[in-house]
Design brief:
The chain is 40% helix and 13% strand. By secondary structure, it is α/β, with parallel strands linked by helices. Bound molecules: 6-O-phosphono-beta-D-galactopyranose.
């Protein structure tokens, strides 16, 4: 099995793994939980729904035990907003509080540090039908939700992530059921109004967190990837810069510095799509300071100049670049191989991404997603030999090592995913976990857990850093 000498990783490094509520918990309407946009969105044809997923809601004790055996130092999971507030705001559902209290206690009892994502794509449906993020009252609903999370769980949770992949919700929202309100005369303006409201909600949560929990740490969790120009043509380099600003820096410039990225701003201005900024918004944005940056990384993007109408390159998948006329268009990178789902694999791009983020913001970094979706095969003896996953993770961890050598402060790595779960786009036979869950797309089977070869590999790797 591939091994890496972890000599330059800090002993306190948070070797972790990730999940999100709607993809792993199931129990979509149990114990007072309200529906989210995910529960109400049409299911991609040929794939399963999100009703049972991996049934973690009922099996979390068994799962956490396996995570402890895996040796995880940290477990990154999300809280379903609709378990705490079935309608997004208003009355608290105490059964939801009880579930996450039990879950957090179980994680801590197993010597694992909880890392909590407050919102991972699953906006309460009750808020969505009132306009969702287009409606400014959602900002206050989120701030109130975050306050309740800090109040009930802040005594035990130190690491908080505000919003998972806000940039992907804005750029690929239709794939996640959170697209712009298309009744609006100017959908792009509406989309970036939603974005402004989410940035504001995040700022409020960061300020509240620091006020209520002085020792807690909080940060954003976008999907960030280095953007390459398709060639050394100056026009392609400009295109890469445009794409990086609109895809990456818009989100982190605001989270860290409390200001709009100038290139993203001029893009919106040229399209008459500037968000309406209320009095006090920018003061609040500037006041909110993250303690770290969390980011999800699966691959890089390569773009070229886009002057004609052939700028779009979209499958609705959040890892594919959607072009912008006049600014950039997505192209494939001939230097990279792709996985079974067409996603490019770029371990060196991981190091590039670390360096770019750290050089821009100089904040400690944690990776909250990185991994390989694949069709795993169960052998006759029940084993799953996912060497492809081990190779992918090994190559990426090697690049973390180089990034640390480059002087980047990296304090944790939480690959996707701790256990098999339902993919956002491609059902449950696209698997990412260290732990296999016995189910098929439409047949729930036994839901029994079993350890893949990557489980033993990751366990040994974590141990070697002790
Ligand atoms: C990220 C999401 C995760 C997860 C992952 C893999 O963007 O934050 O929730 O779904 O992508 O994507 P998929 O499940 O579509 O393979």
């Amino acid at each position: 099995m591939s091994t890496i000498a972890l000599d330059n990783f800090p002993k306190s490094f948070l070797w972790g793994a990730s999940t999100s509520a709607y993809q792993v918990e199931g129990a979509w309407n149990e114990d007072g939980k309200g529906p989210s946009v995910i529960d109400m969105a049409p299911i991609v044809e040929g794939t399963t729904d999100f009703k049972v997923t991996s049934d973690h809601y009922h099996r979390y004790k068994e799962d956490i035990k396996l995570f402890a055996e895996l040796g995880l130092k940290a477990y990154r999971f999300s809280i379903a907003w609709t378990r705490i507030f079935p309608d997004g705001d208003g009355e608290i559902n105490m059964k939801g509080i009880a579930f996450y209290n039990d879950l957090i206690n179980e994680i801590i009892a197993n010597d694992i540090i909880p890392i909590v994502t407050m919102y991972h794509f699953d906006l309460p449906y009750a808020l969505a039908i009132k306009g969702g993020w287009s409606n400014r009252t959602t900002v206050d609903a989120f701030a109130n939700y975050s306050k309740i999370l800090f109040e009930y769980f802040g005594d035990r949770v130190t690491y908080w992530l505000t919003i998972n992949e806000q940039n992907m919700m804005i750029l690929h929202g239709d794939a996640i059921g959170t697209a712009a309100n298309n009744d609006n005369e100017n959908p792009l303006q509406d989309l970036y109004q939603q974005n402004h409201h989410m940035l504001l909600a995040q700022a409020k949560a960061m300020v509240l967190c620091h006020e209520m929990l002085p020792t807690a740490k909080i940060g954003p969790a976008p999907n960030i990837s280095a953007i390459y120009p398709a060639s050394s043509r100056p026009e392609d380099i400009l295109a890469a810069s445009n794409c990086a600003s609109i895809r990456n820096w818009l989100y982190l410039d605001m989270a860290v510095h409390g200001r709009y990225n100038n290139i993203a701003w001029s893009y919106l201005k040229a399209r008459n799509a500037l968000p309406i900024i209320a009095e006090g918004d920018m003061v609040l944005m500037a006041k909110a300071k993250p303690d770290f940056i969390a980011f999800n990384y699966y691959n890089t993007a390569t773009v070229a100049e886009a002057t004609s109408d052939d700028f779009a390159n979209s499958t609705g998948d959040q890892q594919i670049v959607i072009g912008e006329k006049g600014l950039f268009k997505g192209t494939s990178n001939p230097n990279l191989v792709v996985n079974e789902f067409g996603w490019e694999i770029d371990p060196v791009g991981f190091r590039n991404t670390f360096r770019e983020i750290y050089e821009r913001y100089t904040l400690p970094l944690i990776v909250t997603e990185n991994g390989l979706g694949a069709f795993d095969k169960i052998e006759a003896d029940g084993s799953i030999n996912d060497d492809y996953r081990i190779n992918y993770l090994t190559q990426h961890i090697e690049q973390i090592k180089y990034a640390i050598e480059d002087g980047v402060e990296v304090f944790g790595y939480c690959p996707w995913s701790a256990i098999d779960l339902v993919s956002t786009h491609q059902g449950c036979v696209k698997r990412y976990g260290f732990i296999h869950v016995d189910r098929d797309e439409f047949d729930l089977k036994t839901l029994k857990r079993s350890k893949k070869k990557s489980f033993y590999w990751y366990q040994a790797l974590i141990k070697s850093n002790n």
